[in-house]
């Protein structure tokens, strides 16, 4: 019974860490643009979002660390990639965005509060709930997630019982799955999986589970609980979007669509419900990522920097960056994430088939080819046009790196090297 309870609590915590405000906005828009074919788009979204998350967790848990996954492309390369990734998840981009999003969607529409004061209050609360690393998962899983889930369930059930409108049947269904697939990929939810997985495994260790194989199995089971929760919530939100597919068109912004759906279902008081959902979604994500990144920087510094001190620094720095606003933070984050996310996904997917891809030179070929393509994509979008990037297969879907990655892997296969071991760390 204890084991089952721990799996549920940790699974709830994982759900909340992954379910940020962006995850609240994507599914309704997918449903609205798909109409009666919303289920097809939804399946594509789940495959690229929840599917990649679960594969990443399994790969990291079995390998022993995220570094054991990305390090196959070279030790220095893996360390650099993980370091940049943690900086992005930490004080530079993602954590500050949680406070900025909460303010713009939950506080500003209702209260006349100074954003600087709010950011201080938000990260003071994050600091209090994060300062003890062994308690982070329990705080999120036992207390915060249930509030978030109950509020979401109330909204979704209301929309199912009293649909806002009829589902639009006049939408081209030929590309719905691909549309959902693209949107799911663009959430970039799997970016922090390495640190989150290690946090979850550490949580199980603190609960008395000392056997490594058992800890891995419990982590995967908790991830499954989180995945089921995400699928149910995403499905409900996508259906809500589908019920307004005859009312709005694709030109409406994702945020405006969500607000209008809630107003239609719950009236003007629904904004308060939205505020609660966004606040808890962002707070749980901020707490989880602050703990993950703090533990990471403590470990790589060989504990020269204490976890508690790093938490204080991240919360303080994030409180400052949060005042730049959501749009500014996103404009900074997109180019960086566009470069590092495809590399991470490619290496994680390969690691899931590590008995097939045994040569490290294959990983190196894939990683460097993906890195080059991603860099050229960013340059093309912000500096100067690089026409051939647009001619690569799947470029319109955001997957222009796939063919270069395959070519890089093939080249790597034929490169002679003594570096041809199986995974750095592996638990079968």
Automatic annotation (TrEMBL):
Subcellular localization: Cell membrane
MF terms (GO), sorted A to Z: L-isoleucine transmembrane transporter activity; L-leucine transmembrane transporter activity; L-valine transmembrane transporter activity
Gene Ontology cellular-component terms listed: plasma membrane
Pfam families cross-referenced by the UniProt entry: Branch_AA_trans
Keyword Lipoprotein: no
GO biological process: isoleucine transport; L-leucine transport
Lipid bilayer topology: Multi-pass membrane protein
Function: Component of the transport system for branched-chain amino acids.
Family statement: Belongs to the branched chain amino acid transporter family.
Protein name (Swiss-Prot/TrEMBL): Branched-chain amino acid transport system carrier protein
Lineage, uppermost ranks: Bacteria, Bacillati, Bacillota, Clostridia, Eubacteriales
Gene name, Swiss-Prot/TrEMBL: brnQ
């Amino acid at each position: 019974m204890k084991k089952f309870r721990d799996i549920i609590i940790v699974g709830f915590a994982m759900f909340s860490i992954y379910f940020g405000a962006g995850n609240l906005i994507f599914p309704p828009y997918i449903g609205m643009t798909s109409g009666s074919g919303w289920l097809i788009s939804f399946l594509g979204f789940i495959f690229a979002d929840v599917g990649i998350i679960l594969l990443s967790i399994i790969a990291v848990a079995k390998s022993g660390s995220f570094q054991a996954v990305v390090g196959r492309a070279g030790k220095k390369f893996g360390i650099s990639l993980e370091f940049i990734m943690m900086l992005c998840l930490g004080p530079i981009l993602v954590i500050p965005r949680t406070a900025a999003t909460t303010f713009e969607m939950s506080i500003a529409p209702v209260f006349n509060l100074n954003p600087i004061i709010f950011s201080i209050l938000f990260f003071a609360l994050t600091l209090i709930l994060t300062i003890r690393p062994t308690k982070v998962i329990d705080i999120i899983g036992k207390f915060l997630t249930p509030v978030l889930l109950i509020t979401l369930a109330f909204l979704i059930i209301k929309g199912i019982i009293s649909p806002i409108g009829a589902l639009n049947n006049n939408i081209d269904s030929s590309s719905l799955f691909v549309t959902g697939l693209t949107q799911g990929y663009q959430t970039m939810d799997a970016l922090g999986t390495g640190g989150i997985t290690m946090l979850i495994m550490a949580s199980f260790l603190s609960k008395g589970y000392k056997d490594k194989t058992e800890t891995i199995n419990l982590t995967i089971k908790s991830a499954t609980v989180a995945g089921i929760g995400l699928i149910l919530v995403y499905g409900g939100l996508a259906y809500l979007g589908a019920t307004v597919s005859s009312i709005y068109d694709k030109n409406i912004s994702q945020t405006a669509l969500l607000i209008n759906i809630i107003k239609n279902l719950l009236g003007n008081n629904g904004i308060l419900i939205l505020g609660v959902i966004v606040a808890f979604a962002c707070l749980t994500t901020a707490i989880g990522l602050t703990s993950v990144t703090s533990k990471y920087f403590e470990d790589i510094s060989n504990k020269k920097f204490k976890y508690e001190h790093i938490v204080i620094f991240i919360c303080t720095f994030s409180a400052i960056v949060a005042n730049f606003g959501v749009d500014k933070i996103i404009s900074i984050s997109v180019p960086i994430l566009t470069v590092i996310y495809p590399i991470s996904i490619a290496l994680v997917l390969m690691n899931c088939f590590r008995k097939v891809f045994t040569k490290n030179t294959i990983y190196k070929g894939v990683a460097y080819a993906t890195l080059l393509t991603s860099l050229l994509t960013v340059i093309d979008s912000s500096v100067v046009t690089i026409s051939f990037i647009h001619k690569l297969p799947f470029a319109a879907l955001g997957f222009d790196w796939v063919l270069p990655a395959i070519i890089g892997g093939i080249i790597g296969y034929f490169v002679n090297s003594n570096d041809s071991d199986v995974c750095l760390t592996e638990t079968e």
